[in-house]
Amino acid sequence: MKCPHCEKELPVKQCSSCGSLIPENSRFCMDCGERQRDENDPSAEQEGGFDLEDRILCPDGACTGIIENGRCTECGKPYPEAPSTEN
Questions:
Q1: Which residues are CB-contacts of 32 (< 8 A; sequence separation ≥ 6)?
Q2: What is the dihedral of CA 50, 54, 63, 41, to 10 degrees?
Q3: Quick one: how far is CA 42 from the chain centroid?
Q4: DSSP SS3 for 54
Q5: What is the DSSP letter of 28?
Q6: Would you say residue 15 has pLDDT above 60?
Q7: Which pLDDT value is given to residue 56?
Q8: Whole-number Å distance between alpha carbons of 71 and 87
Q9: Of 12, 27, 73, 82, which sits 20 to 30 A from 34 (CA to CA)?
């Protein structure tokens, strides 16, 4: 496989899902879109580790946090937001 810009030969691997040839460091297949797992990646999902596929994003549209233990990791808002008890 050649780089479309400089035409340098790129190392390739096969997609674990469809078998297409993709660049060696690809995270996703360019043909089927399947996420590629890298056994050498220390941040790869491990038992009891953080699962990017099942994360819950903060409901505040301006916040970049995720929900862990019922609260946003960035702004601290509870999830789901508890209704106000003020009367």
A1: 15, 17, 18, 20
A2: 40
A3: 14
A4: helix
A5: B
A6: yes
A7: 85
A8: 24
A9: 73
Q: Mean pLDDT over residues 67-80, rounded? A: 86
Q: pLDDT band for position 47 (50/70/90)?
A: very low
Could you tell me which residue, 87 or 16, shows the higher pLDDT? 16
- Asked if pLDDT for residue 87 goes beyond 80, the answer is no
Burial zone of 22 (CB within 10 Å; 0-12 exposed, 13-18 middle, 19+ buried): buried
> Which residue's entry shows tokens 């970049």?
64
Q: Where are the domains of the chain?
A: 1-36, 53-82
Tokens of 78: 């509870």
Show the tokens assigned to 75.
């702004």
Q: Rounded distance, CA 58 to CA 73, Å?
A: 8
- β-pair partners for 78: 71
